[in-house]
């Protein structure tokens, strides 16, 4: 196989995903179907930008959700089923083990699923900066992590969750210093979504939010 990072993108079940964004897709109404469309759109924009980045070999969603899986496969991406016990770091550890079992020299990474403004060149530059070692990119607040990359042939050792930037640094991963705002802009709240829109949203997220604007002019 060729060189490059295999990026795992974890996504939890749609019924519980992106709870802090509920209502963002429909001007505060909180319709679950519209919310699910937004969650999937954030994911597809993230995966599509990641797939276009130099230095990325494969982009693989890790999920148990069948709707997410179908949407990801329809866009030509790959899906890996997560273990039944669930949990973000458990899913990523499982993905890392699976990839290493199939290819002991693989370079594994994890990318958050909510980077709808991600630009392929920001990601490619981050991978260049990472060099060969274990590295991570903090989110724009500096406390969370948007991407973690292992060294080739090594397990990912994910420590995602609140305050993960400090844990990843503490576990020896090098913090990436470049600005790269589109790689740092994960979207958990409506404020984050506004910031991502300022940077430039991907086409899937733009389409979901444009539908919102047609239905409710006040939401735009
Ligand atoms: N596969 C998998 N992914 C998970 C799991 N828990 C969280 N994630 C993903 O990890 C990322 C960060 O998760 P959280 O911040 O806990 O949840 P969120 O859905 O982004 O947002 P909130 O519901 O508002 O907390 C998101 O992409 C989630 O979909 C899990 O159990 N399995
Ligand atoms: C899981 C994390 O973040 P968020 O809750 O912002 O998605 C993280 O930064 O490790």
Question: What report would you give on this structure?
Answer:
With 220 residues, this protein is an alpha/beta fold. It is built from eight helices and seven strands, in the order E-H-E-H-E-H-E-H-E-E-H-E-H-H-H. Helix 1 links the parallel strand 1 and strand 2. The model has no long low-confidence stretch (mean pLDDT 95). The structure holds guanosine-5'-triphosphate and phosphoenolpyruvate. Guanosine-5'-triphosphate binds next to strand 2 and helix 3. Belongs to the CofC family. It comes from Actinoalloteichus fjordicus. Its EC number is 2.7.7.105.
Question: Helix and strand layout, with pairings?
Answer:
Elements lengths: L4 E6 L21 H20 L4 E8 L2 H9 L3 E4 L6 H15 L4 E5 L8 H11 L4 E4 L6 E5 L14 H7 L3 E2 L5 H4 L5 H10 L3 H13 L5
Parallel strand pairs: 1-2, 1-4, 2-3, 5-7
Antiparallel strand pairs: 4-6, 5-6
The structure holds guanosine-5'-triphosphate and phosphoenolpyruvate.
Guanosine-5'-triphosphate binds next to strand 2 and helix 3.
In short:
It is an enzyme of class 2 (transferase). The protein has 220 residues and is an alpha/beta fold.
CATH architecture: Alpha-Beta Complex
DSSP summary: helix tally: 8
Round the Cα radius of gyration to an integer and report it. Answer: 16 Å
The helix/strand series, from N terminus to C terminus, equals: EHEHEHEHEEHEHHH
């Amino acid at each position: 196989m060729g060189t490059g990072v295999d990026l795992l993108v974890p996504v939890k079940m749609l019924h519980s995903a992106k709870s802090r964004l509920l209502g963002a897709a429909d001007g505060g109404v909180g319709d679950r179907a519209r919310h699910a469309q937004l969650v999937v759109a954030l994911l597809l924009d993230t995966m599509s930008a990641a797939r276009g980045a130099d230095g990325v070999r494969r982009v693989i969603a890790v999920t148990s959700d069948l709707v997410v899986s179908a949407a990801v496969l329809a866009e030509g991406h790959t899906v890996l089923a997560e273990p039944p016990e669930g949990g973000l770091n458990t899913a990523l550890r499982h993905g890392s083990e699976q990839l290493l079992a199939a290819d002991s020299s693989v370079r594994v990474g994890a990318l958050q699923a909510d980077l709808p403004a991600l630009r392929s060149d920001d990601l490619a530059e981050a991978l260049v900066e990472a060099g060969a070692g274990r590295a991570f990119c903090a989110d724009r607040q500096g406390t969370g992590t948007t991407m973690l990359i292992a060294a080739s042939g090594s397990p990912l050792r994910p420590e995602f969750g609140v305050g993960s930037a400090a844990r990843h640094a503490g576990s020896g991963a090098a913090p990436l210093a470049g600005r790269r705002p589109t790689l740092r802009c994960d979207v958990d709240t409506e404020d984050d979504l506004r910031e991502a829109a300022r940077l430039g949203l991907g086409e899937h997220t733009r389409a979901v939010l444009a539908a919102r604007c047609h239905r409710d002019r006040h939401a735009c």
